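Narrative of accomplishments. A recurring question from our advisory board has been how the design workflow behaves on a single, concrete structure rather than in aggregate. To address it, we present the structure tokens for one chain from the evaluation set, followed by the sequence designed for it. No filtering or post-editing was applied between the two.
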């Protein structure tokens, strides 16, 4: 069973997750003509890096700190600020707009990354809008040197980077500046749209029957193949200390030895219980997966789960059931629950989605008997 250490900030995860369901506060929109008249268009390509080339409209009185652009470099661990714009001094502070960049190390959605950022930074989340898997927008409250700022932020994945743009207003200016803040953040655009897999992927094949891809950072173990009627491969995510962070299993079962899909599902769940994994309630039915075109049937269920020997540990078991040609496919993920370790859960579930979508039947399994 998985023995993951709990994150120091994971106890906040459920509270933050609930806030994710809160919409962005309603702000009175500026008329387009008035917004353009009051702002100037900024177009920059920090470090001549097209992946983070952007444009944004900001108030005409604002100034760009040019040293940020000239000193651009990417950090693998810390957010690197590549641009900063300042407004006039007001209430002893200045409103500002910043652009920051991070090189991603593993597969994650923009929403999951942003939640990790909020948890790690100690900000208060007021509301969020998920545009898609690669872009989110949110309003935060953060305190700097006894000054409270209202921040409207947009985080967007492009290539193997995430770009975070933030318009920060001192709280006393919020009533008069929120419309400009919303319009400026809404005008922020990246000049390119690059979709990449973050981690290096390896290919595994079940003879000429099926194949899938998995990240190089996960350990693969395939038991000796004794029959093509039942085949299995296991994937494990391990820390540097060899602690298990998550585990996947892909089972292929020939339809010729099965009475029905329902019987096979019952058999599969029985095997899980024999391993000491107790399934709890159904948490959700996942949508939004893009399965291989030859999959005739596919669904993803998420269950609460506990270790029969240690019921203090909370897990989730994700089960994808698929059918194509002469095989049933069962792909599972055992991960710490989102409430016990959100960081690990985020990484595991995004990687799982990547693996599920890569599973592809091959010609031999599609040939009719």
């Amino acid at each position: 069973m998985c023995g993951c250490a709990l994150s120091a900030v994971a106890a906040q995860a459920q509270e933050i997750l609930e806030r994710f369901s809160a919409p962005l506060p309603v702000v009175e929109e500026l008329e387009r003509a008035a917004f353009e008249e009051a702002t100037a268009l900024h177009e920059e390509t920090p470090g001549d890096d097209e992946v983070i080339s952007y444009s944004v409209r900001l108030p005409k009185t604002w100034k760009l700190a040019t040293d940020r652009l000239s000193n651009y470099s990417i950090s693998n661990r810390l957010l690197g600020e590549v641009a900063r714009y300042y407004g006039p001094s007001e209430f002893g502070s200045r409103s500002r707009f910043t652009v920051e960049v991070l090189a991603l190390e593993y597969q994650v959605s923009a929403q999951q990354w942003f939640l990790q950022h909020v948890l790690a930074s100690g900000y208060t989340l007021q509301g969020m809008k998920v545009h898609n898997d690669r872009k989110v927008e949110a309003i935060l409250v953060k305190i700097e040197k006894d000054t409270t700022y209202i921040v409207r932020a947009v985080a967007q994945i492009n290539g193997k980077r995430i770009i975070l743009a933030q318009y920060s207003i001192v709280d006393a200016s919020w009533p008069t500046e929120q419309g400009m803040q919303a319009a400026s953040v809404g005008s922020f655009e990246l000049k390119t749209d690059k979709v990449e897999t973050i981690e290096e992927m390896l290919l595994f094949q079940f003879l000429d029957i099926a194949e899938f891809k998995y990240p190089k950072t996960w350990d693969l173990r395939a038991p000796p193949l004794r029959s093509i009627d039942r085949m299995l491969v296991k994937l494990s995510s391990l820390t540097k200390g060899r602690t298990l962070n998550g585990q996947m299993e892909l089972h292929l079962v020939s339809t010729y030895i099965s009475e029905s899909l329902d019987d096979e599902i019952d058999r599969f769940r029985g095997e899980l219980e024999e391993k000491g994994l107790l399934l709890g309630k159904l948490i959700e039915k996942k949508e939004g997966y893009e399965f291989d075109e030859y999959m005739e049937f596919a669904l993803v269920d998420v269950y609460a789960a506990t270790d029969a020997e240690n019921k203090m540990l909370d897990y989730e078991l994700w089960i994808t059931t698929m059918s194509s040609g002469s095989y049933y496919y069962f792909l599972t993920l055992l991960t710490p629950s989102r409430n016990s370790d959100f960081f690990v859960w985020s990484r595991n579930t995004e990687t799982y989605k990547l693996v599920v979508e890569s599973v592809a039947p091959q010609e031999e399994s599609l040939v009719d008997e």
